[in-house]
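Notebook entry, structure prediction.
Reason for the run: the old model in the group folder had no record of what sequence produced it. Starting over properly, with the input documented here first.
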Amino acid sequence: MSIAMEEEISNLPALSKAELLSRWRERLKQAPPSHLNKPILVPLLAYRLQEQVFGGLKPPYRRRLRELAESFERNPGRVAKTVSSSTRIKPGTRLIRQWDGQTHQVTVAEEGFEYKGERYKSLSEIARLITGTRWSGPLFFGLKQSEKTRVRQ
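New structure, fully documented this time:
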């Protein structure tokens, strides 16, 4: 991204709503969403300006977002499960967890997980190794929320 673009984006929060709407018309050559308030307009305009430089979302991501939106419209309560169950962690990702004063690091592999030089089929196996009790691996490593936490929100 050019220095000029970085500067323009970093200056957006200092603009008034009227100035933001004017900038939107000027830079994006379309009518701005005037019903939005400034705290939402700033990041949206920043995103759209970056989108002009780098391009938008790739088609598979657009498709997945559309599917999620449609799923939410059909059944708002079920979407949390849909999103988390379909999310796949990319190989090479490191999961780090503090437990009993020690830091535990797991690396996601193409198939399974690596912990302390050994391969495991599931995060739950590793969580059990670390804690000595049965745990949901995704819950232990913070990849999903417990039912209690989800209800409180």
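Summary: Helices lie at 3-11, 17-28, 38-54, 59-74, 79-86, 123-131, 137-140, 147-152.
The old model has been moved to the deprecated folder.
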